[in-house]
Specification:
This protein has about 475 residues and is mostly helical. Among the domains are: about 105-110 and about 125-305, no CATH class; about 390-465, no CATH class. The chain is built from 24 helices and 6 strands. The relative contact order is 0.11.
């Protein structure tokens, strides 16, 4: 493989992980700019326009306005079209960790505001993110902190803050906290509530607001993780952020999401990281940078561990669908039908704003079963068969410049390239070439050549290799 092809292959890997994929022309442009420069652009979305005409979207579809309905479709459209791809990817990252669910909330405006908070805070200080999620009305209601009162605590939020949002149950075979820590943590968050009900009338179309009620806050002395004082919620978060377990927790989540599939979170206490060297590097950066997520991501994306981890992660349903729609290029302007796309995400097992539990979605191989695999392959194969879509038409034109005729082997190689420098096994390669041959000459100027290319693309996206990013 030529050096230029290696650069484009590496860029394709970066854009699949730090975004939702990119078409070949964008990969070439980014490769010419350079890998590290592209990483910096992705890490600093505030310095670049996102290319979104949201006013047009909301005028075209009143349901997309977050005061009404359509919030999942609205955010799906953003994932497809925003030039700030890492910003959108980080919203999905935190949405799968700091979980709320519409099945309980039933307040799209409140849920929308949480996703926008992830947009603002998702690459900043982990401490500030924990403060913001603790004040987030969607979370306050979802985990019942509005039902936690001085002298009568509700432990839901205190427990999940420790177990699933910041530290995890244990590390290296030892527990990270006790039941008493859960209780003391919950006492510290009394008085953190909401100003108006969620859901319900007459406020159903308006977002709930956070309210701190000092009269309902437990002012008594608390002992939490070995420290004693008259702690409030922010004091507890300060203590949490100093713990080595928190550095490990954040690092493993970043590795699992961006580098390679790991075991599920409940197994982390007794299952060491598969790449301890990279995890230790991230832990050190967590403390060195003052808990800064952007700094950890910069270190991760520029590491050899990340660059060498191509095709070691099974794509989530949202990554699969959004990546496909970015490839075919038919959803860059508002039009009817995005609700169907949202339904496809549900059928594949990942519904925006509705993870199955506060633990979030189980990832990796757990994305795949007989039913969801059929939906996944059918959706992608049908999408790449659309020869009149801009993305597929572009691939056809790029393959056609190879000459008046093209061999089956070269046809397969070119299709793999323009799908994002995909790699397949020798066995799969032979199967694809045999399918493309069909005992005839492949003429690039023939009327059926676009269909031939689309047919080859369909075969590729149905392979086991295409499940991976």
């Amino acid at each position: 493989m030529a050096d230029a092809d290696k650069d484009i292959a590496l860029m394709a890997h970066l854009m699949r992980r730090a975004g939702f994929g990119a078409r070949y022309d964008e990969l070439e442009t980014r490769a010419a700019k350079g890998y590290e420069a592209t990483v910096e652009e992705l890490l600093n979305p505030q310095d670049h326009p996102d290319g979104m005409d949201l006013d047009l979207a909301e005028r075209s579809f009143i349901d997309w306005n977050h005061h009404v309905r359509g919030v999942p479709e609205y955010h799906a459209w953003r994932m497809i079209n925003s030039a700030r791809q890492l910003e959108e990817k980080m919203i999905l990252f935190w949405h799968g960790i700091l979980c709320i669910a519409d099945s309980k909330l039933q307040s799209y405006p409140t849920e929308h505001n949480e996703l926008e908070m992830f947009r603002r805070c998702g690459m900043g200080s982990f401490r500030e993110l924990l403060v913001e999620i603790s004040k987030d009305p969607a979370m306050v209601y979802f985990l019942d902190n509005c039902l936690s009162h001085k002298g009568n605590i509700n432990e839901n939020y205190g427990r999940e803050l420790l177990e699933l949002f910041s530290m995890g149950v244990g590390m290296d075979g030892k527990f990270n906290y006790t039941e008493d820590d859960v209780k003391e943590c919950s006492r510290a968050f009394t008085g953190w509530t909401i100003a108006n009900s969620v859901p319900g009338q007459p406020y159903g179309r308006y977002a709930a607001n956070f309210l701190y009620n000092p009269d309902d806050h437990d002012e008594g002395e608390k002992t939490f993780l070995g420290e004693t004082g008259n702690f409030n919620g922010e004091d507890v978060i300060d203590i949490i952020c100093k713990r080595p377990a928190t550095a490990r927790f954040v690092s493993r989540h970043l590795y699992n999401f961006f580098v390679a599939d790991d075991v599920e979170v409940p197994a982390w206490m007794d299952t060491p990281p598969q790449d301890m060297e990279t995890i230790k590097m991230l832990e050190e950066e967590y403390f060195r940078s003052g808990y800064d997520i952007r700094s950890m991501l910069r270190l991760l994306f520029n590491s050899d561990a990340f660059k060498n981890a191509r095709f070691s992660k099974i794509k989530s349903p949202i990554e699969t669908i959004i990546g496909t729609l970015r490839l075919i290029g038919t959803w860059n302007t508002p039009k009817p039908g995005l609700e169907f796309i949202f339904d496809e995400m549900k059928y594949m097992g990942q519904e925006i704003l509705n993870p199955p539990s506060v633990e979030g979605w189980h990832t990796g191989k757990e994305w795949i079963d007989g039913g969801t695999l059929a939906h996944r392959i059918n959706f992608i194969a049908e999408s790449v068969s659309e020869t009149d879509s801009p993305g597929i038409r572009d691939i056809v034109q790029k393959v056609a410049v190879q000459g008046e005729t093209i061999s089956p082997k070269d046809l397969v190689a070119e299709c793999l390239r323009y799908l994002g420098e995909y790699q397949v096994s020798e066995e799969t390669q032979q199967m694809l070439v045999a399918h493309a041959e069909k005992g005839r000459e492949i003429r690039t100027g023939s009327e059926d050549f676009p269909t031939t290319v689309a047919d080859t693309l369909q075969m590729i996206v149905a392979t086991k290799e295409y499940l991976y990013a």
